[in-house]
Amino acid sequence: MELKEPKFKKFTAKQLVRAVVDTMICGAIVIAASLIKFYLTGKAIDPVFWFSLIYLVMLVSVFYGGLLMYSMLSRSFIVQNNRYYLAFLVTLTVAFLFHLFISLVSPLLIAPGLTAMIIVQLSRKKQDAFAFNLIEAGLVFCVLIYEAITTDGNVIMLIGGSEDAGKLQMWLTVIITVINIGVGAVIPVALKDKTNRLHYVLVGLLVTAASVLSYLLMSLAYSDIVLALGLFWPVIISGIIPLIVAQFAVPLFERIFNLVTDNRLMELTDARQPLLRRLAAEAPGTYSHSMAVANFAEMCAVAIGEDAYLARAAAYYHDIGKLSNPFYFSENQAGYNPHDDILPEVSAEIIRKHTTEGMRLCMEYKLPYEVAQVTVEHHGTLPIFVFYERAKHLTDGEVDIRDYSYHGVNPTSKISAIIMICDSSEAAIRAMDRPDGERVDRLLRSIIADRISKGQFDNCSISLKDLDMIRQTIISAYGGLFHTRVKYPGGEK
Predict the structure, then answer these.
(1) CB count in 10 Å sphere of residue 10
(2) How far, rounded to the nearest angstrom, does the alpha carbon of residue 48 sit from its chain's CA centroid?
(3) Which spans in 152-271 are helix H?
(4) What confidence tier does 166 reach under pLDDT thresholds 50, 70, 90?
(5) Is the pLDDT of residue 61 over 80?
(6) In whole angstroms, what is the distance from residue 292 CA to residue 295 CA?
(7) 288, 313 contact by CB (below 8 A)
(8) Proportion of the chain above pLDDT 70, given as a percent
(9) pLDDT value, residue 227
């Protein structure tokens, strides 16, 4: 399932500067690596060195500059969230370095679709895989063609060498580039909305077979057909490389750059995750509540076209901050309420602290920011009326409602808005005596109207139509989640 993202928001000057700096650093690495490669092929002496340097600077400026422009104009999200842009940029650069030096052995060992295979699993938009793979393939092509021309046929290839090595290298570079671009276009389509790791393996094997077949067909156009056909076996090796490398690189990049991907979100909802195990053991009532909210949130996300994986993961962790004082929350109490013995302002502080404490725990356990931000947004800046009313009864003077309101942030995404509604709805429905569809409908309308009147949805793009769809979805789901059990003879419900 493809992850959704917020609608276009203009990136700040700081975010743009970071993207430019990252692009320049990676571009400098490409230039330095290419000069080293030219040195290994005997072309790093004056005046060729300076010509090569100028050529590489122009080449990198065009390709990496074009990539930055593409990201700014079409993918502002990854510029705003720099860790995504940097992850894709590092993937492209590392793939280029690998292809650059593996070509010393043979251009046919250039792994087609390597960049696409990694980015398709990291990106929220599958077309990113094609765009970054296209840039990497074009960059490798221009560098190797330049190298073939300037070395006058003196390129040493341990596999596939011949008397006219320069001509052979140029031909092989053209062939493998065509395959690389073709595979980079197929992979995003084949792997769209796929989360099963086995599916990636099957696609990788099919791509390898298609690469070999494409090479054999194109070999018929080469002057020395026998030589060309005899070199097909490196293509088999190169076709398997993206499959193997991606299995190790994707989880590594997910953790290093703390990215949200489908597979990462599924891992976070595993009950064996450390924070979830703590929640189940230390705050079982909150754990049960979070599971119920997750069911609501997932269905609501699907109903309005948002990402169900992210909604479920965010719901699992939205109340994780209650671990700091679990018994001060009603769902974890067994009769005794400690708030009866403390001042209302102290109670309010303990209750509202669970949002900021949740963010702290998420950061400590290195959860993705998109999940962590829901912990401080799911209550927004709503007042805690129970303790506000209690304070008014205990005080003769005026009571500032801000002292009894959450110090969080109003929802900035539809996911946070969904969790805000589902969190309150689940708790309120459970507290109702014999809830029915009509009463639940009135309750939900009241909850949503109250949050609209208090400006809780002003910072996100959720619409009235979305809110109405969420209401209807919860009403439909409520019957399945809180249905009455059948009475059995001699037993209770």
Answers:
(1) 9
(2) 44
(3) 165-190, 197-219, 225-230, 233-256, 262-268
(4) low
(5) yes
(6) 5
(7) no
(8) 88
(9) 66
Using only C-alpha atoms, the chain has a radius of gyration, in whole angstroms, of 29
Mean pLDDT of 265-291: 93
- CA gap 170, 401 in Å, rounded: 74
> First CA to last CA across the chain, in angstroms?
39
Q: How far apart are CA 480 and CA 462, in angstroms?
A: 26
pLDDT 10s digits, 392-410: 888 877 888 888 899 889 9
The dihedrals phi and psi of 14, each to the nearest 5 degrees, come to -65, -40
Do 153 and 164 contact (CB within 8 A), yes or no?
yes
Give residue 104's pLDDT: 83
Which residue in the block uniquely carries the two structure tokens 């094997």? 205
203/11: higher pLDDT: 203
Q: Which two tokens stand for residue 482?
A: 């809180």
pLDDT value, residue 43: 54
383 phi, psi to nearest 5 deg: -80, 155
> Which pair of structure tokens corresponds to residue 311?
């909604």
**Cis before 284? omega within 30:** no
| 249-253-256 Cα angle (round to 5) | 135
Q: In 320-463, which ranges are continuous DSSP H helix? A: 344-364, 369-377, 385-394, 414-431, 437-453
112 residue type, one letter: P
Q: pTM, whole model, 2 decimals?
A: 0.83
pLDDT tens across 210-229, in order?
Answer: 888 888 888 777 666 766 66
Burial class (CB in 10 A: 0-12, 13-18, 19+), 325: middle
DSSP-derived 3-state class of residue 36? helix
CB atoms within 10 A of CB 81: 21
- Give strand pairing partners of 405: 383
Q: What confidence score (pLDDT) does residue 42 get?
A: 66
Please tell me the distance from the alpha carbon of residue 112 to that of residue 245, in angstroms, as a whole number.
Answer: 12
Structure tokens, 425: 């709805």
DSSP 278-334: HHHHH-HHHHHHHHHHHHHHHHHHHHTT--HHHHHHHHHHTTGGGGGSGGGSGGG-S
Cis amide prior to 47 (ω within 30 degrees): yes
